[in-house]
Structure formats: C-alpha cells, structure tokens
Amino acid sequence: MNVIVDREKGLLELEKRIAELRAANASQPLDMSPEIAALEQKYEEILREVFGRLSPWEKVNMARHPSRPTSLDYLSQLDRFDELHGDRHMRDDPAIVAGFAMLRGRPVMAIGQQRGRDTKENLRRNFGMVTPEGYRKVQRLAHTASRLRVPIITFIDTKGADPGIASEEHSQSEAIARCLYEFTEARVPIVAAVIGEGGSGGALALGIADDVIMLEHSVYSVASPEGCAAILWGDATKAEEAASRLKLTAQDLQHFGIIDEIVPEPLGGAHRDPAGVVARVLGTMHAAVQRLSALAPETLREQRYRKYRRVGAWQVGRQETIGKSP
After folding, report:
1. pLDDT digits over 31-71, tens only?
2. Domain assignment of residue 117, yes or no
3. Which range of residues forms the domain containing residue 24?
4. Is the CB of residue 179 less than 8 Å from the CB of residue 204?
5. What are the two backbone dihedrals, phi and then psi, of residue 227, each rounded to the nearest 5 degrees?
6. Nearest Cα to 126, choosing from 114, 135, 138?
7. How far are the Cα atoms of 119, 178, 209, 227 from residue 206, in angstroms, in the given order?
8. Which of 103, 113, 151, 240 is placed for a possible disulfide with 158 were both Cys, Cβ 3.0 to 4.6 Å?
9. How many structural domains is the chain composed of?
10. What per-residue confidence (pLDDT) applies to 4?
11. Is 104 left (phi over 0), alpha (psi -120 to 50) or beta?
C-alpha cells in the first residue's frame, strides 16, 4: 500500500464537493463564491498539513506514486524526439526509451528509464527494471553521442536493475559497469535528472553526470528501503526505519555533494501539476547543458573525475574527513 495514495483518498471527497459547487455556481444566479472560497481554503490547509513536511519513508512513497510523471512525459515535451532501438547484440529493452532529441533548440541524446502506468504496460516495461540489453543500448547511444559531440541528458526512475536469472546469465553487472565507463569517458556534457525512484546500480548506470538534479520528492539510494531492511535486520517490514538511515532524499544528497540541484514540486507532489514540473525540469537541464557546453572536452572530463572523487566521507582516527580526495 502506498501511504501517499492512501492519504489522497481522504481528499477526493472534498475535491469532488468543490468541483460540484463550481459547476452549480456557473449555472445558476445564486452566488456561492464565499462557500467555494472557504472550502478551497480548508483544502489548502489540509494539503499543507498532510504534505507540508514529508518523512524519508513518505518521500519514498511519493517517488513511487503511480501518477507521477514518467520519462516518456518528459521526452514527449522535448522539441523533437526520435527514438532509437536495440543493443545491436540481442534485442530491444522497452524499459529504456532513448534517442536523438531537441532540447530548447539544442540537439541532445535523451535516455530515460520507463515504468508503466498500468499492469499491462508495467509488464511490457518490466516495471522499469532494465536488463543487460537495455544497458547495452544505453552504452551504444552514449558512445554515439560522444563521438558526434552531442550532449547527453538522462532521466532516472527505477527500483533497480532487473534481478532475474536471465539477466545474470547475460552479464548484468558487466553491462552496468560498461555504462559507468562510457559516461565517465564521454567528451560531451552529461546532465542527469532523478525524477522518481533512483534505486541501486540500476539507477547509477545513468547517473554519472556533470550535473545531477533531483525532483524535491524523488529518492536516490544504493538499495531500496525494503532491501536494506532485509539485509541489515532480516526484516523487510523495517523499511521505514531503513529509509531514514539511508539518507536517500534530495536534501540529504545535496548536503553530501552527490547531487547539484533540487527542482521544487507542487504541494502534494509532481503529479498534481505534471506539465509545470516537466517544464521546470527541462528548463533546469537546458540551463545546465548550456553552461557545460562552454567547457572544453578535457576540462569536462577532468571536472567530472574530481566531482566523483570528492563524494564520500571516511574517518582517520577520531577526525572525520569529508570530500578531501585528491
């Protein structure tokens, strides 16, 4: 059960009542504007009370909201998008949607992890869990973009890489590692956006970037809260506690220097104003691409190297050192 979806059910009756009053007010001479305004004020108060301050676990549930904008929602709002298919080895993976695109008039290679809206699409997209063939498609297109000097933008939204036996047999870890290498060595600007749930190496495969942005209520972590709880305590029901310890929120990750910018969401989540959220994310990505495009390829790669060398914290005796890597 998604706790955010469950809470929203309590607001549906009030939303319905406000809509009915608006319709009645427009069709009859009696002015009900004061009653409508009072209900709208009450609705906003409830929204602030319910969604004003979300815990890490609540943010996980917000990131998993079934109505949250997906990669295709972002790709469809680019000036142009021409999808490319296949890894040139075995097959096409529908969990990765990618191709040449135009971002505010600038050519880019756009790559996104795509989950489904309903059961049928989730099955076709494998719930957004990418197989080795999908990661090899990413690797191929990232290499093409680097060779053609086209910036890369990525949209991260997956619980993790596909965990099936077939994926292990097809060298899942090697495929992810090759993606990491390709993004590390790319001679073009890379901008990544975490738009939902960024889970494990499956998300990191698209996350090596010069600029990493996150939606306010997205999450990005080495493991899912349920998986972490099962590993640490042998009890997946302790996922809420695990979420608070994983430091997986955008605010935590910006503090640690793992991400660079947070894009705000409307009260109640991105699904309450998908068009506005998509426009803000694409605008932020465009600004980052513009800024990074002014840098020479070798400067880009050197800055990218140092960016990831600075990530992390360790202890020497009693003195804690943060971001002191060479």
Report:
1. 777 778 888 888 888 888 888 889 999 999 999 999 999 99
2. yes
3. 3-52
4. no
5. -65, -40
6. 114
7. 25, 11, 8, 21
8. 113
9. 2
10. 86
11. left
